[in-house]
């Protein structure tokens, strides 16, 4: 008995309203909710569907981003020395449809308005907080051309009711048992023996929804099985793969739709396919062994200790070999695809981990991460680029000194310490590499491709990493950097609170002597005070308030000169490196400064140039000091009259390098598309570096 029908006299209006609920919006299976109107009002219950994209982070089995390596195995024969190497790759999502760029929600039926035919939905309902002992809805919902709905029309009953919806597809999955009463929210499933009958089951649930919702119910479907497939690895020998099998895996369990968890029984089963797949040895990495229709759809699990892969392979001589490998205690994760790639040579991992990012026109330090494992052929790996003149590399922790490493990490582009154009290394694991880019002062963007491959001779395919380095936006002979950096104050308006003292009393005497000797290079700077005896530094005080009386950088047309005068004023350019060095040597600061006085507009622009390194040594050690010479300031903070030449879709306020010395608390800012005006030096606004055309 359908207790939830409305009076038939209302039916015409209800059907008209229902037909207005346009919920399927695109042939793209991932865009149902994004491209449609799932919240459109209607007084009958209808649905908008989508797939769960939140877990799609590591790529799909058939995509260029193949996923991550979860394990490596060797298939061995009991009666021969033949082996096959296996690499298990896990990719998020289940992609077995055979449709390019589409992810399947039901085996062989990609989710589109044309052929995702139906799903089954249960409506659990409560009245005044009490669960009703029958389903409000227990129907298949289908796409009837413009709406996902059931054949029977169901109406929203009112605010004193509430609902939770549970849905699944396909509706005809073999050996799937579904809830028969509202007391159960479990699906019971036994995996069919035949791979062609195994289904990619998807489930959608909702939170509690009021009975006067009068909007379409959004259902987000997620995969609850694990797809398992076989593919060719880096190299396969000629012959025939007669069959593949998964042995000793759990095959039955219950899925709790309320909490999204499987509970599996202890029973195991074997699953096999006869393939008779011919191999020539010329297959490409990733070519399928099992077809999309032959993908195993398994239950998510930590595999039993006795679980194994079995492959029957006939070599070029016509001899059958049965090869097995244990996969016990490995994991099949729900909603993922596990691809076992077979190869006659050990599979290795060598890839770029970082994602390409566009870079700016000035001198750039671009840290990237690559991954290399110990399966790599002898000799390690090599990293090159298509532009060796402008692109060089240094591996992290391979600088001549930790102090040089610290300077690079602080953003100093160090000429002579910027590495080599061909980097060779045997380091394994996640390896950070600094990519040093020289400035691009042409009128065209620079397209850079990095190539990563084993050093060893052989037919190894290079992994590539491509990105763009912009050229400046040129206008009237002035080029402006293209990427908006962080905002900065102009600086040089600091009060007495901008004072910090470093204590070295806990350091050994030789370290205090080294610090005292190092500070001789700063003896002419009034903002630095050293306390100690006989050349030994016990305390170092840095008082930035003494830098406020800046009486230079007043040019309205020469930003490079202004930037030089600001950057070098009373040794302020040394402050950042000095503070970093004092902390690295164990200095204990008496407080944290309220703002970072080493970050100001002119310095931000100066840091986009190349620096030289001055090496100072004595009996106690060696120090490395970054030095920016005046003729190397090619990127600078524009002067008052240069700012209007910046042409790169600017908006808002930007600092110029022109100071106002009376009363010494302001400088000129430039408003994009407008004029320049005095502005408080402590205000934080935009900064863009410029350079003159060479």
Automatic annotation (TrEMBL):
In Swiss-Prot or TrEMBL terms, this protein is called Fimbrillin family protein
Point out the signal peptide segment: 1-26
Q: Does the keyword DNA-binding apply?
A: no
* Organism field: Bacteroides uniformis
What domain of life does the native source organism fall in? Bacteria
Keyword terms, alphabetized: Signal
Keyword Cell membrane on this protein?
no
